[in-house]
Write a structure and sequence with these properties.
The chain is of the alpha+beta class. It has two domains: about 1-45; about 50-120, Histidine-containing Protein, Chain: A, CATH 3.30.1340.30. Helix content is about 55%, strand content about 20%. It has a three-stranded mixed sheet with strand order 1-2-3. The radius of gyration is 25 Å and the shape is elongated. The chain starts with a helix and ends in a 7-residue tail after the last strand. This is BON domain-containing protein.
């Protein structure tokens, strides 16, 4: 009875070890050719994925924040593979279009969805 448990444990350990080795080789093989291709070409290809989306989001937000007449604190930027979505509020209706134009001018932005609204002042009419 004890031998059967030992054999099962050995088989399970062998399967786990094999699957872990296969997974790490697959990940490594997928990333190495892309890195060598970029190094050989000498130019950076447009990156995709979470890091690229975060970088693009930061670039768009920084471009908006550089405009002193726009309060960028109430604007959120979502970037996905070059498509940018703007959410939040601005203080003046003229800023809605201006923010969209700023976002369109950032390198890497392929489209802009503008969901900005004008913030109404508290207690005002």
């Amino acid at each position: 009875m004890n031998n059967i448990g030992t054999i099962r444990l050995a088989v399970v350990a062998a399967i786990v070890a094999t699957s872990m080795t296969a997974w790490s080789q697959t990940r490594e093989a997928a990333s190495v050719p892309g890195a060598s291709a970029m190094a050989a070409s000498g130019s950076a290809a447009p990156a995709t994925g979470r890091k690229a989306n975060r970088a693009l989001r930061r670039q768009v937000y920084n471009a908006i924040a550089k405009q002193k007449d726009i309060s960028a604190g109430n604007i959120s930027v979502i970037a996905r593979d070059g498509a940018v979505t703007l959410n939040g509020t601005v203080t003046d209706s003229s800023q809605v279009g201006k923010v969209a134009e700023i976002a369109k001018g950032v390198p890497g932005v392929t489209s802009v969805t503008n969901k900005l609204t004008v913030q109404k002042p508290f207690g005002g009419m």
